[in-house]
Amino acid sequence: MVKFYLGGGPNPRKVALFLEEAGVPYEPIWVNTGEGEQHRPEFLALNPNAKIPVIVDGDRVVFDSNAILLYLAEKHEMFVPERSSPEWAEMISWLMFIASGLGPYSGQSVHFRHAAPEEQPYAITRYLFEARRHFDIVEDRLAGREWLVGDDYSIVDMALWGWAAFLSRILEEEDVERYPNVAALVERIGARPAAERAIAIGSRPGAGPPKVYANPHLFRYLATDKG
């Protein structure tokens, strides 16, 4: 059985979606990142970058949500194009686009707009601009099509859904209307029973809001003028 280390937020949610869609048996293990549990030695042994999600599949450890999606899709031969097809190359490109661009910029937009200890106008402007720019690209890509790659629902749609479901928090409220194609994809996926279960597994009952600055590592980092 797969051990699935998770918490709230977009990245664990998209992995939960795959596990639920594919019917892969898994044991969810909650990591309270607000309390700094991701910096404990036993978790760092799994992911030295101290981030969730992580899966342990027998003797294999995989971290980074998009890497996990690709690993699971290839292992179970589900929700991924044939390697010999042009869609495979497109899928990899869009998966990395989300991993290296849309996801990080969206996360930074959320952080500086909602969680930073003091307002930093330049950071807010930069990350909001980049988040919008990346969602503009996805919006154009989805024009006249249901899914990002080919005609079938795939892991790249799951990766996008993880972030796009939080669009009103990533961007300004009035921005959301600019992305009808993205909203339609979120609605299509959100209507699937597996998505409902993925959302539920990432909503830990009674956990309460995270204590964003309870982590001493983060305090030290912010004090260095690097952030």
TrEMBL record:
<dbReference type="Pfam" id="PF13409">
    <property type="entry name" value="GST_N_2"/>
</dbReference>
<protein>
    <submittedName>
        <fullName>Glutathione S-transferase N-terminal domain-containing protein</fullName>
    </submittedName>
</protein>
<dbReference type="GO" id="GO:0016740">
    <property type="term" value="F:transferase activity"/>
</dbReference>
<dbReference type="InterPro" id="IPR040079">
    <property type="entry name" value="Glutathione_S-Trfase"/>
</dbReference>
<feature type="domain" description="GST N-terminal">
    <location>
        <begin position="1"/>
        <end position="80"/>
    </location>
</feature>
<dbReference type="InterPro" id="IPR036249">
    <property type="entry name" value="Thioredoxin-like_sf"/>
</dbReference>
<dbReference type="Pfam" id="PF13410">
    <property type="entry name" value="GST_C_2"/>
</dbReference>
<keyword id="KW-0808">Transferase</keyword>
<dbReference type="InterPro" id="IPR036282">
    <property type="entry name" value="Glutathione-S-Trfase_C_sf"/>
</dbReference>
<feature type="domain" description="GST C-terminal">
    <location>
        <begin position="84"/>
        <end position="209"/>
    </location>
</feature>
<dbReference type="InterPro" id="IPR004045">
    <property type="entry name" value="Glutathione_S-Trfase_N"/>
</dbReference>
<comment type="similarity">
    <text>Belongs to the GST superfamily.</text>
</comment>
<dbReference type="InterPro" id="IPR010987">
    <property type="entry name" value="Glutathione-S-Trfase_C-like"/>
</dbReference>
